[in-house]
Amino acid sequence: MVLALLVSGIVVVLVLLGLFVFGLRRRLIQRSGGTFDCSLRWNVPEDEPSGKGWIYGVAR
Length: 60
Hints:
alpha+beta, two-stranded antiparallel sheet
């Protein structure tokens, strides 16, 4: 039981740390100015008209 709680706690801490680092990276990129949110359609066959294949990002 203690091991399960310890592993769960470590997983939660790692997820929160990852989200913090992701947000910090975005702020550091945006601080220099001239950035905006954008999306890129990546490797989608022409015969597939669905909304799949979009990747969210920050452009400069």
